[in-house]
Design brief:
This protein has 641 residues and is an alpha+beta fold. It is built from 22 helices and 20 strands. An eight-stranded mixed barrel has the order 6-7-8-17-15-14-9-18. Strands 10-13-11-12 form a four-stranded antiparallel β-sheet, with no helix packed on it. Strand 7 and strand 8 form a beta hairpin.
Length: 641
């Protein structure tokens, strides 16, 4: 039967004169032509009675109907793929390579001087000239900048810096002591090893002595120049670790440094001064020395994933009390002396122990809620001395990326501590809790200058949020932004959200901003320090997150718990005056009287002036990447490399 109907359909096509490929209409299925009263059957039968012209008209009419049906059918939107906008990535670190100093390029001014120079040649053999013979067999490696500086220095001034007569001088001995103690400031003494000639020698072999002294001179100058670089800017270029670091690498004048150090009344102190100055670095040095000398502290074990809430019971309660007894301040222990003296390993987490825990949490800078979680456990159990030493060394390296001397008036944001601090006269006078970027939207590490406070701000939505988060919603609901009151531009022209074909937008073609208001993502104000990462400090309507201990939740900007307090400091006005500016309800930019340095930093160990070093969790796992970079640098500088 199906074969019969197929023949009928083919016959219809033939009668209709269809020269193109013919696709059977949907009604031409098995059994569809059995009914003689079917309208389609009647139409087919009537085809045999029509003239050629009528058949052509029929054919064209059907084609026209099909075209009209196609035009009438709604077309599904074709979406242009919008690749996600990703943040920077972490890289395999490529360390600096040492180069051999080209001693052959150290010119002799007597040989290369002008023939018109009528000055008389020096009488007798100059000790430095006598030592030149060592150049032909001397092999010393240094950082490229150091190697270049040494050639330049000794070509312009062919004289010893570290040798007087036939012995090393006091300046040399002073800087050698600093180089040998490089580990105390987080560097590696092995990188600055120098072969020191013995004091005694055979005066009958003066030429050989001068060659030995020349070897020492060049080795020490290379070591001092390399130390200046490492102490001043760090051994690692942070920008090579990841794009989350943004620092212009320092380039100290090494020729000037070598001259100044060697001519200083205290050459060792002059060399040491290239390390960061300030109480924070002095605290690192003292803490590193203390940790190296100390035995491993006895610790009470607590599960890292312990969760204990008031009213619950746990066999870990007794360890909790013992850990607090070991870690708490004398004042807190005195306040809870009766409890600590009478406690007999009760497993119930009762109100007295909750009060003790709250007191400890407050001392540790944690949320004082009495709930024992991972951060409270970490504060109680602490870290091994070895782990602390590692964090101190990494923090010393990071400190070198900052200015050597921090401005007395500054704002310092430490991401792992979730705190922003304002300094006046080098003292912290105001601090507020922060929320920083999540692990997938990390806050960058960089320096800048605060220029403006904007009250009742607009929020210019970053392209990453438009593309990654808003676009999928807008393709299903184009009026989404209109309902929320956002302002939209398409290729620079103001449009409604529903008027944009969100299936064809590309990065940068659409701009979105949220007007000032109670629901604005930036809250009442933002504090601007223009940078290429679109990072700034700002208020937020989401206040509850500040009650958490771990506060990495933003898209990269720094939210402030007390934005008015910070704004008043940088503007030099009272909190009340800031409030009056906000109360006017209009968007307004307030310039700070004087630009203020801001350090958006990342330190897992840090010390405020007059305080002990505190340790923080590595929120973004950056310690591991920096440690690998330092290890790669040390491996490259090892004698066998």
């Amino acid at each position: 039967m199906a074969f019969k109907h197929g023949l009928c359909v083919a016959l219809v096509a033939l009668i209709a004169g269809a020269g193109e490929s013919y696709v059977a209409p949907q009604f031409a299925q098995a059994g569809a032509l059995d009914n003689p009263n079917n309208a389609h059957v009647k139409r087919i039968r009537n085809l045999g009675k029509t003239t050629n012209e009528e058949r052509r008209g029929f054919r064209f009419g059907r084609q026209r109907e099909r075209r009209e049906e196609v035009r009438a059918a709604p077309s599904a939107p074709v979406s242009r793929p919008a690749p996600r906008i990703s943040g920077p990535t972490y890289k395999t670190y490529k360390p600096d390579h040492l180069v051999a100093i080209d001693f052959a390029s150290i010119t002799d001014p007597v040989v290369t001087g002008s023939t018109d120079d009528m000055a008389l040649p020096r009488l007798g053999m100059d000790p430095f000239d006598e030592g030149r013979e060592a150049f032909s067999e001397l092999s010393v490696k240094a950082m490229p900048e150091a190697a270049k500086a040494i050639v330049e220095l000794y070509s312009s001034k062919p004289d010893y810096l570290w040798v007087s007569g036939s012995s090393i001088n006091a300046a040399a001995r002073s800087v050698l002591a600093v180089l040998e103690n490089a580990d105390s400031v987080g560097l590696s003494a092995a990188d600055y090893s120098v072969d020191v000639p013995e004091d005694g020698y055979d005066i009958g072999r003066n030429g050989e002595r001068q060659r030995d002294l020349m070897r020492f001179e060049m080795q020490l100058s290379a070591a001092v120049a390399d130390y200046v670089l490492a102490a001043n800017r760090g051994r690692v270029d942070p920008n090579r670790i990841s794009g989350y670091h943004d620092f212009k690498r320092k380039a100290p004048d090494l020729v000037a440094a070598l001259k100044a150090i060697s001519n200083s009344a205290d050459a060792g102190e002059a060399l040491n001064s290239y390390n960061p100055q300030g109480e924070h670095f002095a605290a690192f040095v003292a803490e590193l020395e203390r940790l190296k000398a100390a035995d491993e502290d006895k610790v009470v074990e607590l599960p890292a994933d312990l969760i204990l809430k008031p009213g619950q019971s746990s066999p870990e309660t007794k360890n909790l009390v013992r850990a607090i007894e070991m870690k708490a301040s004398d004042a807190l222990k005195a306040e809870n002396a009766l409890l600590l003296a009478s406690y007999i390993d009760n497993e119930e987490y009762d109100p007295d122990i909750v009060a003790l825990v709250k007191g400890f949490q407050k001392e540790a800078g944690l949320a004082s809620d009495g709930v024992v979680g991972p951060r409270t456990v970490r504060a109680l159990v602490g870290e091994s001395n070895a782990a602390k030493i590692e964090k101190i060394k990494l923090s010393m390296e990071r400190a070198r990326w900052l200015p050597g001397v921090l401005e007395s008036r500054r704002v310092f944001i430490n991401q792992p501590a979730f705190v922003a601090t304002y300094y006046e006269d080098s003292k912290p006078v105001f601090s507020t809790r922060t929320v920083v970027g999540s692990k997938s939207n990390q806050t960058y590490f960089f320096d800048d200058q605060i220029e403006t406070v904007e009250v009742n701000p607009y929020w210019g939505v970053p392209q990453s949020i438009i593309i990654n988060e808003m676009l999928p919603k807008l393709r299903n609901d184009p009026s989404y932004l209109d309902r929320l009151g956002y302002q939209v531009t398409y290729n620079g022209r103001a449009v409604s959200s529903s008027g944009v074909n969100w299936h064809s937008v590309s990065r940068g073609s659409v701009g979105v901003r949220q007007p000032p208001g109670d629901d604005n993502a930036l809250g009442e104000l933002k504090i601007l320090f223009p940078n290429t990462h679109a990072i700034y400090m700002h208020d937020t309507p989401s206040k509850s997150l500040f009650n958490r201990d771990m506060r990495a939740f933003s898209h990269g900007c720094v939210r402030l718990q007390d934005p008015r307090g910070m704004a008043s400091r940088v503007l030099g006005m009272s909190v009340e005056e800031v409030g009056r500016e906000i109360a006017q309800g209009r968007n307004k930019a307030l310039s700070v009287p004087q630009k203020i340095p801001v350090h958006v930093s990342y330190f897992t160990a840090w010390a405020e002036p007059g305080e002990e070093v505190k340790y923080y969790a590595d929120v973004y796992d950056r310690d591991a990447y920096l440690k690998k970079a330092i290890e790669a640098t040390e491996a490259q500088r090892a004698p066998s490399s």
